[in-house]
Amino acid sequence: MFDRFTEEARQAFVRAGVIAVDAGLPALGTDALLVALAERRPFGRGLPAFTASPEELAAHLDLGRSRELLAALGIDLDEVRRRARRGADDPARWRLTRSRIRPLRVTLDGPLGRLPLTMHLRKAVEVALWRPGPVTGERLLWGLLADWRNGAAARLKAAGVDLAALTAEAGIPGRRASA
Fold it and tell me: Which CATH architecture has domain 2-170?
C-alpha cells in the first residue's frame, strides 16, 4: 500500500507508528497520525492554516509515565531509544499491508513490530487512496477529516485550527449540496 505514498507522506506515517510504539499503544490510531503530520508537515502546499503544534495534539495521546519512572532511576529514555532504534524510522524498512484473509485488517509492519490500524485510521487511509495518484500529506489529512467520528477535526479545532481555511488550502472537497 505504501507504493502510492509520496516519500514525505510515508515518513509521516512511519513517524506515527513510532509515536504509537513509544506510547505503548496496541494499535495505530488517528491521534498518532495527527501528531506525526504536525511534526513532519508533509504538505506540498505548505498549509499555513495547519497551525496545530505537535505538543498540542500530543496532549490527547496517553504517552504513559515511562519517561518519569526511568528518570527516577537515572535512565535517559531518549538516549536508550536513540541507541536501540538506529534506523528504525527509515520508511524503507516499513510496510503497510492489508491481510489477504481478513481484508479489513491493515497493519504497519517494521523493525519495531506490527501495529494494526484502528478502524478510524484504516478508513482515513482508504479515503486517501480513493482517488488515483499519489497519497500526499494533504490526502492523509483529507482522510482524517472525512469522518467526524474519529475526532481529528475536533482535535484540530481545539488546537485553534481554522478548519474551513485548512480544507480550502488543502484542496479537500467540501460538502455536496443536497438536491
Answer: Orthogonal Bundle (1.10)
Widest CA span in the chain: 65
Q: Where are the domains of the chain?
A: 2-170
Lowest-confidence range among 13-17, 75-79, 101-105, 147-151? 75-79
Q: What is the pTM of this model?
A: 0.84
* pLDDT tops 70 at residue 81: no
* Number of Cβ atoms within 10 Å of the Cβ of 43: 20
Are the beta carbons of 113 and 85 closer than 8 angstroms? no
Nearest-CA neighbor of 91 among 117, 72, 110, 106? 110
Closest CA to 173 of 143, 148, 153: 143
Give the three-state DSSP class for 114.
strand
As a whole number, mean pLDDT of residues 60-64 equals: 62
Cell of 15: 513517524
* Residues forming a β-bridge with 114: 109
